[in-house]
Every structure is written in C-alpha cells, then in structure tokens.
Design brief:
Largest sheet: none
Order of helices and strands: HHH
Number of helices: 3
Helix content: over 70%
Number of strands: 0
Structural class: mainly alpha
Length: about 90
C-alpha cells in the first residue's frame, strides 16, 4: 500500500487514467462493431458511413498510444477491404 502522500496521489491518478483508457478502448470496439454490423447487413452506404466514423477513432487512439499504430492500420485495412467487397 502507498505510504507517502505522493504515492497515494499517483495511485489515484493511475486509477483515473485506467478508467479513461478502458472507456476509450470500449468506444473503439463499439465503432468497429458498427462497421461489422453494417457489412453483414449488406448495406454499403451504411458501412461506408460507419467506416468513415471509425477511422478517426482508430487513428486518435494510435496517436495517443492506447493501441499500437500497426493495430490501427490492420483494423482499417481489413474493414476497408470488407466494405469494398460489398456489391
């Protein structure tokens, strides 16, 4: 357990940051699920709209270090390929 005032503050800050990061990652997964749902429904317009909404979220989380840059690129690439494959 933290004994000094500084250590107690760091514990508080770490907990707040962990909760914020968890929220951001949950938001990212939600946006990805929206794209996947639109793809499975076969609605290309909806899928394109959902994809365009998801891309800035992925880029922002990669820029802030919550996910790796390659992970964001991989998600964008795979989702885009699936969106483009809709006839």
């Amino acid at each position: 357990m933290a004994n000094t005032q500084q250590a107690r503050k760091r514990v508080r800050q770490a907990e707040e940051q962990r909760a914020h990061n968890k929220s951001q990652l949950s938001m990212m997964r939600t946006y990805i699920k929206k794209v996947v749902k639109a793809i499975t429904s076969g609605d290309k317009d909806e899928a394109v709209t959902a994809y365009k909404a998801a891309v800035p979220i992925l880029d922002r989380l990669a820029r802030k270090g919550l996910i790796h840059t390659n992970k964001a690129a991989r998600h964008k690439s795979r989702l885009n390929a699936k969106v483009q494959a809709i006839v």
